[in-house]
């Protein structure tokens, strides 16, 4: 359409729909909400990262009289008192295709004077700005744009399968790009992608698309037209509908399909319609539908747009004590027509994946649920991210119960007994990862789970971790080499060792983990008795000690004299 839009020439419903479409072009996640009171108007919730910018669209095209003001004020008070939004409001816009008079502007400012967020009137100028930015929406809603989209789609399809001009993959790249761009520019609801391939595209590559139409080219390859929604209401504004019948002759294949259909009906899983079994009539956007014989198809999963809150999986002992907990996030949720649901869960590291299956309710309203899960290899993953999972698995035994709980609180949503007695995690793995977690507190880079445990390193790390947690380790010794402070004389040691009491030594410890050097600080060893060995190293800064009677010793983290300033390394 050329020239300015005369908004008053169109019905209120068309105006609201056009505004919703124009906003959706730049904010595809915009949520529409129609007031239940039926007073006209529509609320558009535009996500802005912190919350929702609410745009309250009203269809008024004349002056704002007493009745119109009453409707605006009622909508405003509802928004202030009971917004029923999952996120906070960050701004409010009253969107009307008419600019306010000074008196109307003053009335609006008095209405929103105590608003806790910015509140403005967006009038006719705002509508004209959006119309100039998205002329295809105006053409689609008020002109002949809808027919033009269908015409260009038919031209694109006829070009693909014109028997007089058979296409190759090279032709597609050269001659169809402009037609595709025009179609994408005209249609406010859908985007159209073209892709060539040796075979039919696998179903995994169709995720996110609502429809795909494939045709075989002259060179044997396939050209697929892929249809993707431009905004969250595309399927409602321009729906895909039709009917199909199936004929599966093979009894085994028929039984497999029946099982798949039951899962589709109960839980909303995707459904694969086998090659050669489908006859269908399809009404699709841009005239992409039609009648098909002996084809195949795929019905995508019925994914819920709003997922539930995070959950926790808890291992609980027979006495009711929570032994370990694992936070889970909801990755996806599907819902079937029969009322069942499947919730796909994962832990923070995506090592554990689980499916919570809620079966359709029985006639008496009761239902059942089951949880299945599997764990990937933890090697190479950050220790701190997989440790909660390893702790949980280490607690699983025949006397343990798994409970699903909300992220906060102790409400038990579902409960299952552990049907596989015995832990799947060896104790040595859990203890080693706990020790690595102590090490991570002092490391700069993430420490990854090793493929195998190096026993000498694990033994040393276990002692360091115990001492860093405050434990004093008691043991025995047979000899030790000291590094003397600069200026100290080895000849003076016998006198010092002959004094009553014990002998304390300090040592700075660091370890290497996958090329990362980690400083653990100072550790102190206290000897009950000691003397200089008969044979000493040639270096006078080294002294070899051996026990003098009592061979016991203790070790702990920290300095022998914590109140003193730190001593040089190696002393």
The value of Rg in angstroms is 36 Å
Measured between the Cα atoms of the first and last residue, the distance is: 86 Å
Would you identify the CATH architecture of the largest domain?
3-Layer(aba) Sandwich
Which parts are unreliable, with pLDDT below 50 for 5 consecutive residues or more?
564-571
Largest sheet: 7 strands, antiparallel
Assembly category:
single chain
Shape by Cα distribution: elongated
Query: What's the pLDDT, averaged over the residues?
Result: 84
Specify the helix fraction band. 25-40%
* H/I helix tally: 14
Write the layout of secondary structure elements.
Blueprint: H1 12-26, E1 31-33, E2 42-47, E3 52-57, H2 66-81, E4 89-95, H3 102-111, E5 119-122, H4 124-133, H5 135-142, H6 145-160, H7 169-175, H8 177-186, E6 190-197, E7 211-216, E8 222-229, H9 234-237, E9 241-246, H10 251-267, E10 271-283, E11 290-299, E12 311-316, E13 322-335, E14 341-346, E15 352-358, E16 369-375, H11 383-394, E17 401-406, E18 414-417, H12 427-440, H13 455-468, E19 473-476, E20 480-483, H14 493-498, E21 503-513, E22 516-527, E23 531-532, E24 542-546, E25 552-557
Parallel strand pairs: 3-4, 4-5
Antiparallel strand pairs: 1-2, 2-3, 6-8, 7-8, 9-10, 10-11, 12-13, 12-17, 13-14, 14-15, 15-16, 17-18, 19-25, 20-24, 21-22, 22-25, 23-24
Helix pairs in contact: 1-5, 5-6, 6-8, 11-12, 12-13
Folded structure, characterized:
The structure is a single chain. The protein is of the alpha+beta class. The protein folds into four domains: 136 residues, 3-Layer(aba) Sandwich (Dna-directed Rna Polymerases I, Ii, And Iii 27 Kd Polypeptide, Chain: A, domain 1); 128 residues, no CATH class; 115 residues, no CATH class; 89 residues, no CATH class. Helix content is 28%, strand content 30%. It is elongated, with a radius of gyration of 36 Å. It contains 14 helices and 25 strands.
């Amino acid at each position: 359409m050329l020239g300015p839009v005369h908004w008053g020439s169109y019905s209120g419903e068309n105006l609201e729909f056009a505004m919703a479409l124009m906003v959706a072009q730049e904010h595809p996640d915009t949520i529409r909400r129609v007031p239940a009171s039926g007073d006209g108007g529509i609320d558009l919730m535009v996500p802005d990262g912190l919350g929702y910018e609410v745009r309250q669209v009203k269809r008024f095209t004349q002056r704002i009289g007493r009745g119109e003001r009453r409707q605006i004020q009622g909508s405003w008070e509802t928004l202030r008192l009971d917004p029923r939004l999952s996120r906070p409001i960050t701004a409010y816009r009253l969107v009307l295709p008419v600019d306010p008079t000074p008196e109307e502007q003053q009335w609006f400012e008095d209405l929103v004077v105590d608003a806790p967020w910015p509140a403005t009137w967006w009038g006719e100028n705002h509508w004209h700005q959006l119309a100039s930015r998205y002329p295809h929406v105006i053409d689609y809603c008020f002109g002949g744009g809808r027919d033009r989209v269908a015409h260009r789609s038919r031209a694109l399809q006829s070009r693909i399968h014109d028997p007089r001009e058979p296409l190759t993959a090279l032709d597609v790249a050269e001659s169809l790009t402009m037609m595709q761009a025009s179609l994408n520019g005209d249609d406010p609801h859908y985007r159209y992608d073209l892709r060539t391939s040796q075979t039919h595209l696998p179903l995994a590559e169709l995720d996110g698309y609502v429809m795909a139409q494939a045709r075989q080219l002259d060179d044997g390859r396939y050209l697929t037209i892929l249809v993707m929604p431009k905004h969250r209401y595309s399927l409602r504004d321009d729906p895909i509908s039709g009917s199909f019948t199936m004929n599966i002759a093979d009894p085994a294949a028929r039984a497999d399909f029946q099982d798949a259909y039951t899962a589709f009906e109960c839980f909303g899983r995707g459904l694969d319609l086998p090659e050669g079994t489908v006859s269908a009539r399809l009404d699709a956007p841009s005239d992409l539908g039609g009648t098909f014989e002996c084809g195949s198809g795929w019905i995508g999963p019925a994914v819920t747009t709003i997922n539930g809150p995070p959950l926790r999986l808890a291992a609980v002992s027979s006495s009711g004590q929570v032994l370990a907990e694992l936070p889970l996030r909801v990755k996806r949720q599907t819902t079937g027509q029969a009322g069942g649901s499947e919730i796909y869960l994962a832990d923070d590291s995506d090592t554990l994946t689980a499916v919570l299956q809620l079966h359709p309710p029985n006639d008496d309203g009761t239902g059942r649920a089951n949880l299945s899960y599997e764990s990937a290899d933890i090697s190479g993953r950050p220790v701190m991210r997989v440790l909660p999972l390893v702790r949980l698995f280490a607690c699983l035994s025949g006397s343990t119960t798994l409970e699903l709980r909300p992220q906060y609180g102790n409400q038990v949503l579902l409960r299952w007994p552990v049907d596989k007695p015995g832990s799947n995690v060896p104790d040595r793995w859990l203890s080693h990862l706990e020790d690595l977690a102590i090490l991570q507190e002092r490391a700069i880079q993430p420490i990854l789970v090793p493929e195998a445990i190096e026993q000498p390193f694990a033994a040393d790390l276990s002692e360091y971790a115990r001492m860093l947690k405050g434990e004093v380790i008691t043991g025995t010794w047979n000899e030790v080499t000291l590094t003397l402070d600069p200026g100290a004389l080895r000849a003076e040691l016998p006198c010092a060792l002959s004094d009553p009491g014990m002998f304390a030594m300090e040592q700075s410890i660091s370890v290497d983990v996958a090329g990362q050097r980690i400083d653990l600080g100072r550790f102190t060893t206290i000897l009950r008795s000691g003397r200089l060995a008969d044979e000493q190293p040639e270096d006078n800064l080294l002294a070899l000690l051996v026990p003098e009677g009592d061979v016991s010793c203790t070790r702990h983290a920290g300095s022998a004299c914590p109140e003193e300033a730190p001593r040089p390394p190696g002393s």
